[in-house]
Write a structure and sequence with these properties.
The chain is of the alpha+beta class. It has a domain at 9-60 and 140-154 and 183-295. 27% of the residues lie in helices and 32% in strands. The chain has nine helices and 14 strands. It has helices spanning 45-59, 76-86, 94-100, 104-115, 117-122, 169-172, 198-205, 209-220, 253-257, and strands at residues 9-20, 24-25, 31-32, 40-43, 123-127, 135-140, 143-145, 148-153, 157-163, 178-196, 233-244, 260-264, 277-281, 290-295. The strands form four sheets. Strands 1, 4, 7, 8, 9, 10, 11 and 14 form an eight-stranded antiparallel β-sheet that branches. It has a two-stranded antiparallel sheet with strand order 2-3. Strands 5-6 form a two-stranded antiparallel ribbon. The relative contact order is 0.23.
Length: 296
């Protein structure tokens, strides 16, 4: 495994959705998440990390060191057992083994970080309260994401849809179609901000330069292998990266985020495309010791 990163980073991601639901809210009938006070759209960090995990799992399939811990259809304990098997531990005797080896918790944690990309990146809570106490500890990851918020308020639309395939024989005698609902956002441009701590990478997970480059590629392409009719057309439009010259950073994160401006060209009509916006970065506001890079 490569050496841990040595520089702190912050980044801003702009992505958009056209005629789709970027993140349904199960508490609201799966309608797009909206801040009820302002009408701005919201996409959770959990949703975005799922896309990143899916991309890494697809492009790094079966490559050692790039497993995915939070994975659909795979119980966490199944992955936890890999650490126990590697260290030659028996499930029912973990507590006794930890008493005999004071460094065992660190060895288990290090194994999980070394073998699972998402633990190395985002961290994980691997403490499961089961009878046999398969406890792989807790890891605070160096990469953290905020909730994404739309640049302008969104107007979710509820569309009624029909299908000709009837579910049951009894229903088929009385009707020819089934009715359903579908929520979409006609267009929305979203902004999400993120943080990468070189200090946590060095001390805890070993998040490396190779991992960092894979993360940038995953962010830029996180919707490319995850298209679905329900989500419409989604794409990452811009990634702005701020790199500090040091491990602990050379400027507050909020000052760097404030340097990225998104402006709508025509305030009098609703936005319906990315070309309706202008994105600029005020390089004069970037302090010494920080460099900026834009990727699209």
């Amino acid at each position: 495994m490569s050496e841990a990163i040595k520089n702190r980073y912050e980044f801003v991601v702009l992505f958009d959705v056209e005629n789709g639901n970027p993140n349904g809210d199960p508490d609201a009938g799966n309608m797009p998440r909206v801040d009820p006070e302002t009408g701005y759209g919201i996409v959770t960090d959990v949703c975005l990390k799922r896309k990143i995990r899916n991309y890494v799992e697809t492009v790094m399939e079966n490559k050692a060191g790039f497993g995915i811990y939070i994975k659909d259809g795979v119980p966490l304990n199944r992955s936890d057992r890999r650490a126990l098997e590697y260290l030659g531990l028996e499930e029912g005797k973990i507590k006794e083994a930890k008493k005999a080896d004071k460094d065992l918790d660190c060895k288990i944690r290090d194994f999980m970080c070394m073998n699972f990309f998402d633990i190395r990146t985002f961290g994980a809570v691997m403490t499961t309260f089961t009878k046999n106490a398969l406890n792989c500890g807790q890891v605070r990851g160096p990469v953290q994401l905020s909730f994404a918020r739309s640049i302008d308020p969104i107007v979710p639309q509820e569309l009624t849809i029909t299908r000709t395939a009837i579910t049951t024989e009894a229903d088929a005698e009385n009707k020819k179609t089934e009715m359903g609902r579908k929520f979409i956002v006609p267009y929305g441009l979203y902004r999400v901000e993120g943080y990468i701590s070189a200090n946590l990478a060095r001390k805890v997970t070993g998040f490396s330069e190779e991992d960092l480059e894979l993360l940038w590629q995953a962010i830029l392409n996180m919707f490319e292998y995850d298209h679905a009719a329900a989500r419409g057309k989604m794409a990452v439009r811009k990634l702005v990266i701020f790199k500090h010259d040091s491990e602990l950073g050379n400027a507050p994160a909020h000052k760097l985020f404030d340097a990225v401006h998104v402006r709508r060209l025509d305030e009098g009509s609703p936005a319906r495309a990315y070309s309706d916006y202008v994105v600029t970065v005020d390089e004069s506001a970037i302090p010494a010791g920080v460099t900026m890079e834009c990727r699209e």
